[in-house]
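Treating backbone geometry as a discrete language has practical consequences that deserve illustration. Part of our work consisted of pairing the sequence of a single chain with a tokenised description of its backbone. We regard such an encoding as a compact summary of how the chain folds. The amino acid sequence and the backbone structure tokens for this protein are reproduced below.
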Amino acid sequence: MTQPKLLLLSPAFHGYWKAIQASLEVHGYDVHTHIYDAPGTLSERILNKLAHELPEKYRPESFAAQATRKAIDAFNEFHPDIVLVIKGDMLSREWWDLLETSGVRYGTWLYDEMRRMSYTEEDLHHLGSLASYSPLDAQHLREQGFEVLDMPNAYDTHCPVVPVREDSINFVGAKYPNREETLQALVAAGLPVRAYGRAWSRHPYDILRTKQFKDSGVPAGRDIDRSEAYGIMASSPATLNIHNNQDGFTMRTFEAPGVGALQVIDRPDVDRYYIPGEEVLVYESIDELIEICTRIFRDPKWARKIREAGQKRTLAEHTFDQRVKILEQLWA
């Protein structure tokens, strides 16, 4: 039987496209991935940086044209039966016109809140079948007459776990005021905490490139890749998952329990995926977080039970291999 040829069009996406590609291949697809925001020449790298860091209205129009041209080239070279686009708002109308007239089956996973993407309501009619990681966006779009699948993030079972010893409660991610305040409170309470990421790091190079000259007082490490992050979370007493202006759940929501970490999260609505108090720990105030973290060290048997239950649920329901079954509905 011939494998269906699937073109995966994705942003660099912290390398998560590799997880999606691997999971699609597990399900029998012949996958070719095109990273539409991958930088090339020096001038292209400059445009790529501008495209990611400038507000949408100030982004150079030529980047969209360049990204669209390369996406079209990838389509014409691979001749896919199916196209899966992740986010895709950097691509111009020419790309979507090609999909509409080509006769291929295609769909789009809106991996971000709509308010952070440049799509208009008119644009959405050209994206094929839709899936969204944002429950609020999915509800809003359905109210506008769109059919939208709920497609949450997941744990990547294909990513190797690099063993790393970590005896402190860890946080891996970007530095935002709410996150900094939370970690500072834990430090002030005498709890061992370590943050990882360039904006937290006190390495001279990281300080210069991030302009984070003031020390937050939170012990910190540098940027780490996903395999190292998985190892740190697995060995750490607990992993903090602190959201920032999001209604969709971060990858960390599924990665932490997936690797066997004890997740402590700031979202009571995580109960759509895990049982709070049994598979994940939820806090709604700094005082409650301090109390939870204190108990983690005082009662390791209790903590281990939650850790094991969270991993069991994740491996059974929340891996990318399982999420492919949702994505397949886009082109069914």
Notes: The first helix runs from residue 16 to 26. The domain at 5-151 is CATH 3.40.50.2000 (Rossmann fold). The chain has a mean pLDDT of 93. The two ends are 18 Å apart (CA to CA).
